Amino acid sequence: MTGGVNQVTTDLPEVQPLGDEIEIEALITRYCSAVDAKDWPAYRAMFTDDARVDYSAAGLVVGTVDDAVKFLSRHGEGMAIGMHYLTNVESRIDGADAHVVAMWFNAVRLPAAEDMTFFCGRWHDELVRTPSGWRIDKLRLEVMG
After folding, report:
1. How confident is the model at residue 74 (pLDDT cuts 50, 70, 90)?
2. d(CA 145, CA 140)
């Protein structure tokens, strides 16, 4: 097996779906790390050029990923701590497209708060395979608590 950074490729068709699932879970994990570190260039790099995001379930931005970067860079700095935990990543892969549902838990310290606040939910993502690997094309946040 060979591949670029964070890419698993193979000529064995029965192994490729496993490589895709590993790469997709790694992408979602890097997404969490970028948000927690407030690393907006890294966050942006995980999306397609024309990606759309929907954070409306949390009362946040809906629009292009560039709208999200502007919003998060302006408003995200007020959060002292953010720690996303990722679990139950389910990928339905169809060629160069994938539908992904992943559960998340986030411990966050909101502005002016002394204690941590906890949120949980699911991401519903549409991904596309690009020459650089899997990228998020549409992201929708679901908040469950």
Report:
1. confident
2. 16
